[in-house]
From TrEMBL:
Protein name per UniProt: Uncharacterized protein
Keyword Transmembrane: yes
Transmembrane spans: 20-43, 63-85, 97-121, 141-166, 173-194, 214-233
Native organism taxonomy: Bacteria, Bacillati, Actinomycetota, Actinomycetes, Micrococcales
Keywords: Membrane, Transmembrane, Transmembrane helix
Length: 240
């Protein structure tokens, strides 16, 4: 357990970058949202219409995006330092996975608290939203907690996997990965072109009606697959 604690210490060594930076980023985003509310009030916009329209506001990604940076850093600047301290690759994978869960839970908690306050104050008194959006679920608080947690965790695991591909095969690996993703997109687009329009509409309707639980299952699947690939590649990670 002490060895895993050492991994967490490596990740949380830069306390300003880990804890202070997110607070500053969220603060700036909230100031921008507040300015939108002030300007909307001055020009006479209806508060109900503003509240409804801002459910698609993506400002919360300033917080969720932090998880993406954490995922990349796991296989970048931190790995070499950890291996130099005698931490094994297996310990690094376990400790980093635990750190992902801690950070995803922290981000989820911040969003849920922000959402509760946002709703209670009628959109910070101006009908604006930052936390109660479609990106983090406009349903009950527990849905927001689960959705935000899965988005953050999936983002960190996926980006850690990308970082592991880069660590293992460098630019060549990223090129192959990008090529495979491009081929899949082209195939999907091609299938869409040759498929009758009525069937395309039915497929789109099926995606729309997939439901909250279905999309959460997709996020969970992305998380599991990314985590497994990342853990496997981490066992062969090189010091760079």
């Amino acid at each position: 357990m002490q060895r895993i604690n050492n991994v967490l210490r490596v990740h949380f060594a830069d306390r300003k970058g880990t804890f202070l930076a997110p607070v500053i980023v969220v603060g700036i985003a909230m100031v921008v949202i507040a300015l939108v509310g002030i300007i909307a009030t001055i020009v006479g916009a209806e508060r109900d219409a503003l509240w409804e329209g801002m459910q698609y506001n993506g400002a919360v990604w300033t917080l969720l995006g932090i998880g993406i940076g954490i995922g990349f850093a796991t296989m970048g600047q931190h790995l070499s330092f950890a291996l130099g301290m005698g931490i094994t690759r297996r310990e690094w994978a376990i400790g980093s996975g635990l750190m992902f869960v801690i950070m995803a839970a922290s981000i989820s908690t911040i969003v849920v608290i922000g959402k509760v306050i946002e709703i209670a104050t009628g959109g910070w008194g101006m009908g604006v939203r930052m936390f109660d959006t479609v990106h983090t679920s406009t349903g009950p608080w527990w849905q927001t907690a689960a959705q935000t947690f899965l988005i953050a965790l999936a983002g960190m695991c996926f980006c850690a996997m990308i970082g592991a591909v880069w660590n293992r095969w460098g630019k060549t690996g990223l090129s192959w990965l990008g090529g495979v993703m491009l081929i899949l997109l082209v195939l999907a687009f091609g299938i869409g072109l040759i498929t009758p329009w009525e069937q395309v509409l039915r497929m789109l309707e099926a995606l729309v009606s997939f439901g909250w639980g279905g999309w959460m299952s997709v996020l969970a699947g992305i998380t599991v697959v990314s985590a497994i690939v990342w853990a496997i590649l981490t066992r062969r990670a090189e010091v760079r």
